[in-house]
Amino acid sequence: MVRLALDHGPTACTTSHTDLMTSSNLGKSPSANELGMLLRHWRDLRGRSQLDLSFDAGLSQRQISFIESGRSVPGRQTLLNLAQALDISLRERKAHVAPA
Predict the structure, then answer these.
(1) What is the assigned CATH class of domain 9-97?
(2) Are 64 and 50 in contact (CB under 8 A)?
(3) Maximum CA pair distance of the chain?
(4) pLDDT > 60? residue 84
């Protein structure tokens, strides 16, 4: 298993992307915090700022910040818009959006 260290300053997290996608987690809705970490992971992978992503997804930068911090849980359509803006594959989308 490949472990991704999501190091974002003083609140560094060692939860891996693969931990969020284990078979025991795929059938369950991710917590707001897990979803936020996953969004931040994909955004960092794509080299996108919250502001850039907000323009492409049709959201405010504040809304993306709230999702990443776990203070907001996006709806299904918002997740689909974010996935499309981040060019996330259909396989990945199905794994993460279906439970939402």
Answers:
(1) mainly alpha
(2) yes
(3) 35
(4) yes
As given in the structure block, the two tokens for residue 72 are 């907001």
Measuring CA to CA, which residue among 9, 49, 17 is closest to residue 35?
A: 17
Q: Where do the structural domains in the chain lie, given as residue ranges? A: 9-97
pLDDT, tens digit, for every residue of 11-65? 444 444 444 443 344 445 667 788 899 999 999 999 999 999 999 999 999 999 9
Distances (CA, A) of 79 to 1, 8, 63, 76, 83: 26, 22, 12, 5, 6
Task: Report whether pLDDT(68) > 50.
Answer: yes
Structure tokens at 25: 């987690």
Residue 97 corresponds to which tokens in the numbers above?
A: 């959006």
The secondary structure of residue 79, as a DSSP letter, is: H
Which DSSP string do the residues of 37-58 spell out, in sequence order? Answer: HHHHHHHHHTT--HHHHHHHHT
